[in-house]
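Morning. Coffee machine broken again, so started the prediction first thing and wrote up yesterday's gels while waiting. Chain of 76 residues, entered below exactly as on the submission form.
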Amino acid sequence: MARALGRLRIGPLIAGVRGEPALAIAPYLAAAVALGRLMVEEPEIASLDVNPILVGMEPGDCLALDAVVFVEGGAA
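Came back before lunch.
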């Protein structure tokens, strides 16, 4: 999954540019896996919209600033 992120248009920003250190993407990857698990374990969730997600340079720096959970029959 980390390689797939590197192939995105923002890949160079994730890897660090102009002397900036790389972002700590492990927390982001863990959050993505957890959201995938949530979708499997809670079938009433029709979809999730999580945007934006801030990823920092320190381990553990990953914060969803806004999220909407769509459940069968409406949004929660």
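The chain has a mean pLDDT of 87. Going to sketch it on the whiteboard this afternoon.
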